[in-house]
Amino acid sequence: MATEVYLVRHGETMFNQLNKVQGWADSPLTVKGINDLKVTAANLSQVHFDKMYSSDLKRAIDTVHLIADTNEVSEIGKIKKLPAFREVFFGTFEGDDIDETWRKVAKAGGMKPTSDVVKIIQTLGIHDFREATKKADPRHLAEDAEALDDRMDQAISQLAQETKGLGRVLVVSHGDFIKTLGIKYWDQASGDHDIPFPDNGSVTRGIIDDNGKFRIINYGVKNTDIPNL
């Protein structure tokens, strides 16, 4: 039996609002973040889920509980935390100014310093962007491409085991992690090339087939467009 997976990006946080790097570091949802999530939750309120999950970071946990509390057709029970669905880890850059961080990453990648992360990724490719991030990190703790790919495989494998025999589940995760899943598992993505960053509260829909293989069908659907899924 195939399992339908709704991957939701958490709501806007204080670090999002302050333009700070936010991977494994955490910050609370903003008022805007909560209000945007109410739209997401309302548009998912009549969608039946057999189970709901989240990463183990508080912004994801708060998001999944808001969605679960609004859903009118599901009896979720205990919501399990899946640490493998955490955001990408940015090492020493956690909590730093985003623009300054990307300038350092661009320089480490052999580019003229720029805060335009889209340009950096388009120039280097996502693999070398991850390598440049780790190189630029003074302690070299940031996740590189291989470590992140291994964690994505672990996340999907664990989810396939967790959801065997279930029809539809929801997982709250994070923007860069969902985007990197999209690059790997979305048919419309092309290899190492960049794809748009998913909005806070957006839904990415995928399928885990009977063999445990995962593919993404709809990527980064805005919260207002959820009824069209």
From TrEMBL:
Protein's UniProt keywords contain Hydrolase: yes
Cited InterPro entries: His_Pase_superF_clade-1 (IPR013078), His_PPase_superfam (IPR029033), PG/BPGM_mutase_AS (IPR001345), Phosphoglycerate_Mutase (IPR051695)
Protein name, entry field: Histidine phosphatase family protein
Gene3D superfamilies from the UniProt entry: Phosphoglycerate mutase-like
One cellular component (GO) term of this entry: cytosol
Active site: 10 (tele-phosphohistidine intermediate), 87 (proton donor/acceptor)
An example Gene Ontology molecular-function term: fructose-2,6-bisphosphate 2-phosphatase activity
Site location (Transition state stabilizer): 174
Residues that hold substrate according to the record: 9-16, 59
CDD domains: HP_PGM_like
Superkingdom, taxonomy of origin: Bacteria
Keywords for this protein: Hydrolase
Gene Ontology terms describing biological process: negative regulation of glycolytic process; regulation of pentose-phosphate shunt
Entry-linked SUPFAM superfamilies: Phosphoglycerate mutase-like
